[in-house]
Design a protein that fits this description.
Blueprint (H helix, E strand, L loop, with lengths): L14 H17 L27 E6 L5 E5 L4 E3 L4 H14 L5 E6 L5 H13 L5 E4 L1
Parallel strand pairs: 1-4, 4-5
Antiparallel strand pairs: 1-2, 2-3
């Protein structure tokens, strides 16, 4: 009976593949840029030993409830406001409060069930209205 000739199987040397993989890994780690989130920029006031009370006349409250509805206005006169109207209402209230000789303070309060995106949208609208004094209430 005739025997089939046995074929030699080729060897594959994988040691150089590990070197190449390591070099590619180092190359991509060195050449890629890592983006860092800057977050929301706030300039915090310096710490004070004495707390000076603020007058309530210049405070404008903005409430965000669980249904993401926005209530805005001065104490006792809050009304439901749509998100795009916040900036215009704040500039109007800022003029009204400035005519009384006070400066405006915006107090933003949100319930735990509200959406974070709406909270940031409210902050953006306040910043666009160029309000300098913002109170973030829990």
């Amino acid at each position: 009976m005739l025997k089939k000739p046995q074929r030699k199987l080729g060897d594959f040397n994988a040691s150089s593949m590990a070197d190449i993989t390591f070099l590619l890994l180092v190359f991509f780690l060195v050449t890629t840029t890592v983006s860092t989130d800057r977050g929301i920029l706030f300039v915090l006031p310096p710490t004070a030993d004495e707390v000076t009370p603020t007058r309530v006349r210049g405070v404008v409250n903005i409430f965000l409830n669980d249904e993401n509805q926005v209530l805005m206005g001065q104490r006792g006169r809050e009304e439901e406001v749509a998100m795009p109207q916040i900036r215009n209402r704040l500039t109007m209230l800022q003029r009204e409060i400035a005519s009384q000789g006070d400066s405006i303070i915006v107090s933003i309060k949100a319930t735990p069930g509200s959406t974070y995106r709406y909270y940031v949208d409210i902050l953006d609208q306040v910043k666009l209205a160029r309000i300098q004094r913002i109170s973030l209430a829990p």
